Amino acid sequence: MDRLWSWGRPAIVRDVLDDLNKERDLAYTTVMTVMDNLHRKGWLTRERDGRAYRYAPVATRQQYNAELMREILADSGDQAGTLLRFVETVTPEEADAIRRALRSRGPGR
Amino acid sequence: MTTIATVLFGYAAVLAAASPRFLSSQWLARSPRLALALWHSCAVSVLLASILATVACYADDGLLRGWLTAIDGSSGVPGIVAAAVAVLVPTVLIGRVTLTVWQVLARHRVERDRHLKLVCLLGRHDHRLGVDVIPADVPAAYCVPGSKQIVLTKGAIAILSDNELRAVLAHERAHLAGRHHLLVAWADALQKAFPRVRLFNAMQQSTAHLVELLADDQTLRRASAESLASAIAAMGCARTPTIALAATGGSVLTRVERLLAPPAPLPVATRLGAAGAAISLVALPILPILILTAGHIPCPHFFS
Question: What does the sequence similarity comment in the record state about its family (chain B) (predicted)?
């Protein structure tokens, strides 16, 4: 996905494999399987181009980032339980009260 | 017996209406584990009582015979209607609970899978901490139940000291080890199944808060109260200006205050009493049914 995002254009399995193999040694079928899986699960689209498929990401990195952030920060009750968050959002008044409480105990680190 | 049915219905109604007030009292939060046990046994008790009440309506000797005659058609239309209600009401109750629990769990699984995929695509694994780190400035930390993964944002790592970080990780590991998400999901499902019942509404909110307190308590075995409190404060306060605010009812402040000035643990007698109450709450609705059936079904030993 990283390669496809940074290229910003559709690519065939061979392109991705050649690029990946600059750093490590992967088999053609491995990359093909991964890309096929990503396509089946709806992360990549593909178009037939001669004997091969040309793959492109469904959404940009920014779009996925935005989705991820929405999920992380959603404090609504509907999201509760999917993820267990360390701390929920606090109101400014509450934040003040928390800082006061900490200060009254002195530097606690 | 109809008396037993009335008693059971009344018991369920009173418990569902009155228990949230008692269960929300401050002293109970001194032991989150007990508070959770009491909340959930109250809920189970109300469910059991309502189901058994409808069963009791028809388990009465005369009515049971009426029900049997309804099946062979000899008591006419009213008998068939009564018999249908006797079967339908408990089935609908149990079915509704089962369905929503299943829906909630399925939705959570789908959302978590998608979320993990996103984390995998956009983040990287930090082997030293054993967590996934996503490149975002907003400080956030959470665990993804089911996958045992803990996720931190870069922003969180930036603002936390080593000790605070250790406290955050211990807190999230406590959630995962205690399978707190199952309690939260169950409370969530009950609230969705019966949104008008006060007990279930209150229980959903309390469960979410109490599992945090429980995880805080368990964190104290591995990290100091001070570092956990300052981590909570740092993470909570850092996020304030950036996001639309949803009131949390002061739950974060409660957690910090509780860590800085821990309440005395509950006396042993109180704890035993509360544990006993939790068990009796579940057992209570079953009792009249046991008496009823013991009175009506002849014990095989009489014949031997």
Answer: Belongs to the peptidase M48 family.
State the architecture of A1-109 in CATH terms.
Answer: Orthogonal Bundle (1.10)
Is B136's CB within 8 Å of A99's CB?
no
DSSP per-residue codes, A22-78? TTS---HHHHHHHHHHHHHTTSEEEEEETTEEEEEESS-HHHHHHHHHHHHH--SGG
> A-B interface: how many C-beta pairs under 8 angstroms?
154
The H or E element that residue B153 is part of is strand B149-153
CB-based contact A5:A60 (threshold 8 Å): yes
For tokens 């694994």, the residue is: B125
- Count of all residues that appear for chain B in the document: 304
Put simply, the answer to whether B140 touches A73 (Cβ < 8 Å) is yes
Which is nearest to B223 in space by CA: B255, B258, B252, B259? B259
Contact between chains at A88 and B117 (C-beta distance less than 8 A): no
Nearest chain A CA: its distance from B169 CA (Å): 9
Of B138, B164, B252, Cβ closest to residue A94: B252
Torsion of CA B67, B69, B72, B76, to 10 degrees: -90
What mean pLDDT is predicted for residues B134-145?
85
Which pLDDT score is estimated for B200?
92
Best mutation target, B109, B114, B173, to test chain A (most A CBs within 10 A): B114
Question: Among B178, B138, B162, B205, which Cα is nearest to A109's?
Answer: B162
Domain residue limits, chain B: 2-296
Q: For B108-134, write each residue's pLDDT tens digit.
A: 888 888 888 888 888 888 888 888 998
By the 8 A CB rule, do B190 and B230 touch?
Answer: no
Residue A74 confidence (pLDDT) = 66
ipTM of the complex in this document: 0.71
